Amino acid sequence: MSCRVWVLYLVENKRIVMIGIPGVGKTTLLSKIVKILTDNKKNVSRISFGTLMFEVAKENGLTDRDELRKLPVTEQQRLQKLAAEKIASQNEEIVIIDTHAFINSPEGYYPG
Protein backbone atom coordinates (compact mmCIF):
# COMPACT_ATOMS: atom_id res chain seq x y z
CA MET A 1 0.00 0.00 0.00
CA SER A 2 1.46 3.39 -0.96
CA CYS A 3 1.94 6.13 1.62
CA ARG A 4 -0.80 8.20 -0.03
CA VAL A 5 -3.32 5.34 0.10
CA TRP A 6 -2.33 4.51 3.67
CA VAL A 7 -2.86 8.13 4.80
CA LEU A 8 -6.28 8.24 3.13
CA TYR A 9 -7.28 4.93 4.74
CA LEU A 10 -6.04 5.99 8.17
CA VAL A 11 -7.95 9.24 8.43
CA GLU A 12 -11.26 8.49 6.75
CA ASN A 13 -13.88 10.33 8.89
CA LYS A 14 -11.61 10.47 11.93
CA ARG A 15 -10.10 12.64 14.59
CA ILE A 16 -6.33 12.13 14.53
CA VAL A 17 -3.95 13.19 17.32
CA MET A 18 -0.27 13.75 16.45
CA ILE A 19 1.77 13.68 19.67
CA GLY A 20 5.46 14.36 20.14
CA ILE A 21 8.01 16.44 21.98
CA PRO A 22 8.83 19.90 20.57
CA GLY A 23 11.07 19.78 17.49
CA VAL A 24 10.47 16.13 16.59
CA GLY A 25 8.79 16.99 13.26
CA LYS A 26 5.06 16.75 14.02
CA THR A 27 4.13 19.92 12.19
CA THR A 28 6.31 19.08 9.17
CA LEU A 29 4.76 15.62 8.86
CA LEU A 30 1.26 17.02 9.32
CA SER A 31 1.85 19.54 6.53
CA LYS A 32 2.61 16.65 4.17
CA ILE A 33 -0.39 14.63 5.37
CA VAL A 34 -2.74 17.60 4.99
CA LYS A 35 -1.46 18.16 1.43
CA ILE A 36 -2.13 14.51 0.51
CA LEU A 37 -5.63 14.76 1.95
CA THR A 38 -6.54 18.08 0.34
CA ASP A 39 -5.12 16.88 -2.99
CA ASN A 40 -7.64 14.04 -2.65
CA LYS A 41 -10.53 16.45 -2.01
CA LYS A 42 -10.78 15.76 1.73
CA ASN A 43 -12.11 18.47 4.05
CA VAL A 44 -9.36 18.78 6.69
CA SER A 45 -8.98 20.91 9.80
CA ARG A 46 -5.57 21.04 11.48
CA ILE A 47 -5.56 22.27 15.07
CA SER A 48 -2.69 23.00 17.43
CA PHE A 49 -4.05 21.97 20.82
CA GLY A 50 -1.75 24.41 22.66
CA THR A 51 -2.82 27.30 20.42
CA LEU A 52 -6.47 26.45 20.97
CA MET A 53 -5.91 26.26 24.74
CA PHE A 54 -4.22 29.67 24.60
CA GLU A 55 -7.15 31.15 22.66
CA VAL A 56 -9.49 29.93 25.40
CA ALA A 57 -7.12 31.23 28.11
CA LYS A 58 -6.94 34.67 26.43
CA GLU A 59 -10.70 34.94 26.90
CA ASN A 60 -9.90 34.69 30.63
CA GLY A 61 -7.15 37.32 30.62
CA LEU A 62 -3.96 35.33 29.90
CA THR A 63 -1.63 37.31 27.62
CA ASP A 64 1.42 35.05 27.13
CA ARG A 65 1.21 31.50 25.78
CA ASP A 66 4.17 30.38 27.90
CA GLU A 67 2.11 31.22 30.99
CA LEU A 68 -0.14 28.23 30.20
CA ARG A 69 2.40 25.81 31.62
CA LYS A 70 2.71 27.90 34.79
CA LEU A 71 -0.99 27.70 35.60
CA PRO A 72 -2.18 25.33 38.33
CA VAL A 73 -2.91 21.85 36.97
CA THR A 74 -6.62 22.28 37.75
CA GLU A 75 -6.75 25.36 35.50
CA GLN A 76 -4.79 23.56 32.77
CA GLN A 77 -7.30 20.71 32.98
CA ARG A 78 -10.20 23.16 32.68
CA LEU A 79 -8.64 24.77 29.61
CA GLN A 80 -7.94 21.33 28.08
CA LYS A 81 -11.59 20.37 28.57
CA LEU A 82 -12.82 23.58 26.92
CA ALA A 83 -10.38 23.14 24.03
CA ALA A 84 -11.46 19.50 23.59
CA GLU A 85 -15.10 20.60 23.46
CA LYS A 86 -14.24 23.06 20.68
CA ILE A 87 -12.47 20.29 18.76
CA ALA A 88 -15.46 17.97 19.20
CA SER A 89 -17.70 20.60 17.61
CA GLN A 90 -15.61 20.76 14.40
CA ASN A 91 -17.61 19.81 11.30
CA GLU A 92 -14.73 18.96 8.98
CA GLU A 93 -14.53 15.43 7.61
CA ILE A 94 -11.06 15.00 9.15
CA VAL A 95 -9.68 16.84 12.18
CA ILE A 96 -5.98 16.53 12.98
CA ILE A 97 -4.78 17.69 16.39
CA ASP A 98 -1.11 18.64 16.79
CA THR A 99 0.09 18.51 20.42
CA HIS A 100 3.11 17.94 22.66
CA ALA A 101 3.44 14.74 24.65
CA PHE A 102 4.14 16.56 27.92
CA ILE A 103 4.27 20.06 29.35
CA ASN A 104 6.76 20.93 32.08
CA SER A 105 4.74 22.75 34.73
CA PRO A 106 5.58 23.84 38.30
CA GLU A 107 3.74 20.73 39.54
CA GLY A 108 5.78 18.40 37.30
CA TYR A 109 5.22 17.00 33.82
CA TYR A 110 1.65 17.04 32.65
CA PRO A 111 0.10 15.58 29.46
CA GLY A 112 -0.07 18.36 26.93
TrEMBL record:
Q: Which organism is it from?
A: Candidatus Nitrosopumilus salarius BD31
What is one Pfam family matched by this protein? AAA_17
Name of the featured protein: Adenylate kinase
